[in-house]
Amino acid sequence: MRDLLSKLPKTDKILKEKIFSHHNLTLLKKITQSHIQVLRENALKGEEIPDYQSILENIATIYKNTLNPTLRPLINATGVIAQTNLGRSIFSPALINEIAPLLSEYSNLEYNIEKGSRGERYEHITTLMSALFDCEDCIVVNNNASAVLLIVNTFAKDKEVIISRGELVEIGGSFRIPEVITSAGGILKEVGSTNKTHLTDYKNAITTETTMIIKAHQSNFKQIGFTKQIEIEDIIKLATQNHLIDYYDIGSGYIDGINIHSEPSLKDIAALKPSLVSFSGDKLLGGPQAGIIFGKKHLIEKLKKNHLLRALRVDKFTIFALQATLKAYLENNLKMIPTIAMLNQTQEELSTKAKEMHALLSNIPNLKCEIIQLSSKAGGGSLPEEEFPSYGIALKHKHLKTQTLNDKIRQKGLIARIQNDQILLDMRCISPHHFKQIQDLLLQVMSENAK
Ligand SMILES: *Cc1c(COP(=O)(O)O)cnc(C)c1O
Asked: 74 alpha carbon to ligand 1 midpoint, in Å?
């Protein structure tokens, strides 16, 4: 045995090899030591030690893989458009081209060129926001969770915040409205019951310590049956009568240009002149991750003075991408916004894509493939009950288990879902430029698993 182990190469010798002369020594040493450790354990179990050259090659491969970027593009065949795990909203190449020059040069992000004085990064979106929503003022923070935190911390620290028990939602990724309110220093005053809250519940909860009434969108769930929540219109009225701030956390929020009737658009809400509204930039808006806040000017000004804002401040990339996104809405150039473009596809367009995809896949040996009707989702906790009829492809391998096939295509970058022991590819988030890629990766899986 000792004889066998003595055949293991020495780390120092490997580190001096010429093929490693340009490698980072610290990383190379770590990888080499742990690789030799694995070989030692294997040898003790009776496995043969590979020849020296193969060991070098293995180490070189591990080194290369370690330095490979972990992020990679994926094809979203799930039919869920703002898929949080897959990066929520994506950008169009046109939008990236529009902002690219700003990213590789200095810019007037916080600089007033006219006056040669300091400017404000939020100013770059104020005019667009007021054109879209006719709002007095706005501000942008890191995400919508930050918006809730900033608003409650600014106006309700050690003060009472009233919110319906039916709206104490958890969004996922450990964001819970009640926890955020308390973390921000607000005193939570829950009113009503889980399924029903009346206007009188709000009225009765108002004390001299109350500063704000929050309405939070239920987002990712829907109550049906014996239920009642108060509309934002009535909350605004009640707050105004009692000199309180009304704040609507809309969550997703959409501008227009999509066929949704189950809930009001951001423009509808803005027309009610609420004190404050916040929503995510990368859900149905289809822009960068951000928490967008609009409302009354004197309140936004207070938000700007909160020192927390510095910690929640958005990067220039966000401002650039948000400005381009809002501009696309104002110019009704919705093709610039993939989230909206994908939502707006007609049944015909989806069916045509399914047929084209099917033609490319139907000749692959051992793969059964058929066109089926599906229904896609908005995702990101938006519009949970809304189904968007779609077309797709159902796949099944003649020998491989469906789960195994799904594992293999996922590892090659195609994210699908399984239903009734079939792999479903929803065409909604698949573009024609993916077709060949999907065909190639399936062919690859087939040849790797040829019997
Ligand atoms: C999604 C959501 C949030 C969190 O927004 P992020 O932008 O993901 O931080 C907060 N409130 C509601 C109602 C939401 O739907």
From this structure: 24
Contacts 24+ apart (CB under 8 A), 365-373: 365/446, 366/397, 366/398, 366/399, 366/446, 367/395, 367/396, 367/397, 367/398, 367/442, 367/446, 368/395, 368/396, 368/397, 368/398, 369/393, 369/394, 369/395, 369/396, 370/394, 372/424
Categorize the per-residue pLDDT at 183 as very low, low, confident or very high, splitting at 50, 70 and 90.
Answer: very high
Residue of 236, 340, 240 whose CA lies nearest to 284:
340
Residues 6 or more apart whose Cβ sits within 8 Å of residue 295: 135, 136, 137, 138, 274, 275, 276, 277
pLDDT category of residue 1 using cuts at 50, 70 and 90: low
Ligand 1 centre and the CA of 85: distance in Å? 14
Say if ligand 1 is within 6 A of residue 384 CB: no
pLDDT surpassing 90 at residue 224: no
Q: Give the residue with greater pLDDT, 138 vs 195.
A: 138
pLDDT band at 63 (very low <50, low <70, confident <90, very high): very high
Q: If you take atom 6 of ligand 1, which residue's CA is the nearest one?
A: 144
pTM, two decimals, is 0.90
Q: CB count, 10 Å around CB of 379?
A: 26
Q: How many CA atoms lie within 13 A of 9 on its CB side?
A: 21
3-state secondary structure of 57: helix
Closest residue (by CA) to atom 5 of ligand 1? Answer: 144
